[in-house]
């Protein structure tokens, strides 16, 4: 079982700048190195209406752009609700950037009622993410939001 209390303390110490770009890169790298059985971790940013564009990430080259109308990331952006998918192949409009991905967790990053983007985490293991993982990663997203000046990168409408 992952110790999210410890990860929260470590990430808080790591994010020692207000710069959102540095913090997004650091958060992606931190999660990729500390969580087991992942093959991709990164941010997609809302910079165009109803569209996510690729931000800092760790893993293979990724799909870009992603419309809100497609895939797990699009669903998280549309609904502003975390999406935890045990089998991405069962999602009819799943966007397969890496054929090895089997499960996915996508957390929307919302600042002052505006969608800033999403944190997308993929695993080659079916049903990799538990409810406890979801709650822990949502807490880590809160650390990222609180540490970062996300207003400097506000979405364009």
From TrEMBL:
The keyword Ribonucleoprotein does not apply. Keywords: Kinase, Transferase. Residues 3-155 form the GAF domain. The keyword Kinase applies. One of its GO terms (cellular component) is cytosol. Gene3D superfamilies: 3.30.450.40. InterPro entries: FRMsr_CS, GAF, GAF-like_dom_sf, Phosphatase_reg/MetRdx. GO terms for molecular function: kinase activity; L-methionine-(R)-S-oxide reductase activity. It holds the Pfam family GAF. Belongs to the free Met sulfoxide reductase family. This is Histidine kinase. It comes from Salinicola socius. The lineage of its organism: Bacteria, Pseudomonadati, Pseudomonadota, Gammaproteobacteria, Oceanospirillales.
């Amino acid at each position: 079982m992952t110790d999210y209390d410890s990860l929260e303390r470590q990430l808080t110490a790591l994010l020692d700048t207000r710069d959102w770009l540095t913090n997004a890169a650091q958060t992606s790298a931190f999660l990729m190195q500390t969580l087991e059985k992942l093959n991709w971790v990164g941010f997609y940013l809302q910079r165009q209406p109803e569209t996510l564009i690729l931000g800092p990430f760790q893993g293979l080259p990724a799909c870009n752009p992603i419309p809100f109308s497609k895939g797990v990331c699009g669903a998280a952006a549309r609904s502003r609700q975390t999406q935890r998918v045990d089998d991405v192949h069962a999602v009819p409009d799943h966007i397969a950037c890496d054929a090895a991905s089997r499960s996915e967790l996508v957390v929307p990053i919302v600042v002052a009622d505006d969608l800033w983007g999403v944190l997308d985490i993929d695993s080659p293991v079916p049903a990799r993410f538990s409810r406890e993982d979801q709650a822990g990663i949502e807490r880590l997203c809160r650390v990222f939001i609180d540490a970062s000046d996300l207003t400097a990168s506000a979405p364009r409408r």
